[in-house]
Amino acid sequence: MLIHPALDKLKQLNLLGMQRALIEQMESPERDRLTFDERFGMLVDTEYTERENRRLKCRLKRAQLRQTACVEDIDYRQPRGLDKALCVSLTGCDWLRQHHNVIITGPTGTGKSYLACALGHKACREGYRVLYFRASRLFQDLAIAKADGRYDRLLRALARTELLVLDDWGTAPLTDSQRRDLFEVIEDRYDRGSTLIAAQMPLKHWHDTIGDPTIADAILDRLVHNAYTITLKGESMRKQKAMNLTPPHNSGKKENDS
Asked: How far is CA 127 from the centre of its chain?
């Protein structure tokens, strides 16, 4: 059988998964036990899986998530007010299909960023386009875009993104330029995509953080009325982990000293 020309053609067609699967079949002593349909199905499945993995890798690279986080690794054991039923429901991504939002608030160290990145990662796995920004970085990028003429282009890119993750929101009061930029972003995305915001500041103080009452009303009306809210509480998980890693005080002998 002239297999090498077929392998070359698969490579030229960029069917690299199918090429690899065909090589594995040719090297397998079990191949003669499989029907043509079974072998062909395996080739197609391998190609499909490889392409999906490449697409996922591209989506994750573009998303620029702050942490490597997965919904399967969310810790529900810590007493921090995390509603497991709600989180499990959000992992189904119906909220993305319905263009709803998620708001996560709580003290520093309670896992807001991890949870936000985990939901962003799950969205990438489900095929959604995701962008992650720390709030200060988003405002900085928007200011630079105004200066070099890319402002409208950046707004269009943000509007097309199916999930915008805005982390570390509300750490400082907004300037007039920032609150107007935020209104443009939220207005463009309203009923077109989902926004996830993680903030230390409780939701009841967001109005004051935004500043201008009229703009604050407009922004919050578009964000909050169709949002799932998660309010975390308790001590910093970073502090607890650090305490767990601290060796107990003893006479100074190491564990392997004897």
From this structure: 11
